[in-house]
């Protein structure tokens, strides 16, 4: 065990940037609050550098509750990189109640009195996600859950318009309810496992009553499935994706999932004895239901943000497959970590196109490929990536996911995932086909240049990760 604060340098960089941003926002005039965005970007870049340095060191346990290992390293890189892209998407005018004709989802103004808080809340949610992915103690897990959730509730209703307020209320109520169930599970597991550390639980739960373990695990899963956007904690996803501003929708459908799946993997691999509470079967069933429900619900969506929301639910189902195989095959960890990185960059790329165009309806994307080739091509790469088309990163992630299911002797789950992958082609093509039509309406406004750059960068990274997957997996 080590108690050196430097081992948490990436998290400290994010925390310091959030505090500095909040303090500077108090004294900056409204027209200069963009400087807070620069502070947040600097903190995230410093965190990435610190994470790269930490990844070269041996694995260790920090403060008896933070595991510094490959799962933490990948979580850090993915969360920090994803949050950096979200900050870039959120930079500029901040959502408010005033409606303007150039922003279909909601009005935006410069010099918003809460602009600095907007950036700081994004960083605090990311900080909670980092702690969620590295925690190896149930009490730290709960604290990280709250830190990742509460700023996100505020961000969902930041615009104070009716759709955002409704989305924030649903988001908060479901998070609070499932969070209470999570606390109940933590209490029960602490009682029968005589500790909250994952190592202590793994040693003591083998002698505990099976029924008590099962109830505790199911209750604990309630909160983590909520953060992951998986069944049965998925109901908030489409409402928040549609009601919040697009950058916030990109955040809540991407960043919290990374920490949630890392936490789920740790529980299955480190905290529970092999086969306890029927973990593989329980998670496999949740995975099958989640991917199937997400794909079926996405078929009839004409709002692209709701379509992406149900797409993220289905992707959560695929990500649950290696979680179910934790401890059953060596492919589980690389499959989960690579898929998480691939999903994050692909989802952010798709939302970046929505931010750049300012269009929420499928017909509004007719002719986008001709009107703006970079945006059109980026969207095609991201949507085909969701399907699992080579050479995108998600393709490699799905291959690893199928391999983990087969190696873990869950052939039926691999078949369900394959059927759902084929079925998803339909609704992604509903968005891709209009891109090749004749331009309809105005081309994307110049205000979407940063978002366009983010979309192009995400598409290129997706292809690079897929093409260079051998090197990445070796690392």
Distance between the termini: 25 Å
Helix/strand-derived category reads mainly alpha
- Give average pLDDT, whole number: 91
Low-confidence runs (pLDDT<50, min 5 residues)? 98-107
The helix/strand series, from N terminus to C terminus, equals: HHEEHEEHHHHHHHHHHHHHHHHH
From the spread of the alpha carbons, the general shape counts as globular
Helix content: over 70%
The number of helical segments is: 20
Biggest sheet architecture: 2 strands, antiparallel
Count of beta strands: 4
Strand content: under 5%
Widest sheet: strand order?
1-2
What is the gyration radius calculated from CA atoms?
21 Å
Explained architecture:
With 475 residues, this protein is mainly α. The chain has a domain at 294-475. 71% of the residues lie in helices and 3% in strands. It is built from 20 helices and 4 strands. The strands form 2 sheets. A two-stranded antiparallel sheet has the order 1-2. A two-stranded antiparallel ribbon has the order 3-4. The longest helix is centred in the middle third of the chain and has 32 residues, at 162-193. The radius of gyration is 21 Å and the shape is globular. The two termini are 25 Å apart. Residues 98-107 have low confidence and may be disordered.
């Amino acid at each position: 065990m080590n108690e050196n604060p430097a081992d948490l340098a990436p998290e400290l960089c994010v925390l310091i940037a959030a505090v500095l941003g909040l303090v500077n926002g108090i004294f900056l005039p409204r027209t200069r609050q963009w400087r807070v965005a620069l502070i947040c970007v600097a903190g995230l870049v410093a965190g990435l550098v610190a994470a790269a340095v930490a990844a070269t060191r041996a694995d260790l346990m920090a403060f008896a509750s933070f595991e510094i290992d490959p799962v933490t390293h990948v979580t850090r890189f993915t969360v920090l990189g994803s949050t950096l892209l979200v900050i870039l998407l959120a930079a500029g005018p901040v959502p408010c109640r005033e409606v303007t004709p150039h922003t279909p989802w909601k009005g935006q103004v410069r010099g918003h009195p809460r602009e600095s808080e907007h950036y700081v809340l994004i960083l605090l949610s990311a900080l909670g996600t980092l702690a969620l992915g590295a925690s190896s103690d149930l009490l730290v897990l709960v604290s990280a859950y709250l830190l990742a959730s509460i700023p996100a509730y505020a961000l969902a209703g930041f615009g104070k318009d009716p759709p955002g307020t409704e989305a924030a209320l649903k988001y908060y109520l479901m998070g609070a309810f499932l969070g209470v169930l999570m606390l109940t599970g933590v209490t029960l597991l602490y009682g029968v496992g005589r500790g909250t550390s994952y190592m202590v639980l793994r040693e003591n739960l083998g002698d505990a009553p099976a029924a008590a373990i099962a109830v505790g695990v199911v209750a604990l899963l309630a909160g983590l499935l909520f953060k992951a956007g998986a069944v049965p904690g998925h109901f908030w996803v489409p409402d928040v994706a549609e009601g919040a501003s697009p950058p916030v929708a990109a955040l809540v459908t991407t960043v919290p999932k990374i920490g949630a799946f890392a936490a789920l993997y740790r529980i299955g691999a480190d905290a529970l004895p092999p086969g306890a509470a029927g973990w593989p079967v329980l998670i496999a069933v949740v995975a099958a239901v989640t991917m199937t429900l997400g794909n079926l619900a996405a078929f009839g969506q004409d709002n692209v943000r709701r379509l992406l929301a149900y797409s993220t639910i289905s992707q959560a189902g695929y990500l649950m497959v290696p979680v179910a195989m934790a401890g059953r095959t060596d492919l589980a960890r690389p499959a989960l970590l690579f898929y998480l990185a691939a999903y994050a960059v692909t989802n952010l790329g798709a939302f970046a196109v929505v931010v750049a165009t300012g269009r929420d309806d499928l017909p509004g994307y007719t002719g986008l490929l001709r009107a703006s080739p970079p945006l059109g091509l980026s969207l095609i790469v991201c949507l085909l990536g969701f399907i699992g088309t080579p050479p995108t990163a998600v393709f490699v992630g799905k291959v690893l996911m199928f391999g983990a299911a087969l190696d873990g002797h869950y052939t039926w789950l691999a078949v369900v995932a394959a059927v759902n992958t084929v079925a998803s082609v339909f609704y992604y093509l509903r968005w891709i086909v209009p891109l090749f039509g004749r331009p309809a309406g105005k081309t994307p406004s110049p205000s979407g240049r940063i978002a366009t750059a983010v979309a192009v960068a995400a598409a290129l990274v997706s292809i690079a990760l897929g093409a260079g997957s051998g090197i990445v997996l070796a690392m």
